[in-house]
Amino acid sequence: MLASDPLEFKWRLHDAKHAILDRIEDTMRSGSQAERRMLGLALDIVSAVERSDSAERADADADYTANIAA
Fold it and tell me: What pTM does this model have?
């Protein structure tokens, strides 16, 4: 999941999230409860990484803007 390009990392998170959502949809018909729980946890983790990444970028942007203004 590592990517040196921030935009590529964002797209990898996006793709991972949608792959998990697709699999959750597939398991609604034939998957086990355990698999759905694991997929739900995976979705929570990807979402948390996404939020963390967004927060870090916002902080970095604020620091950059503050340094330019100084």
Answer: 0.71
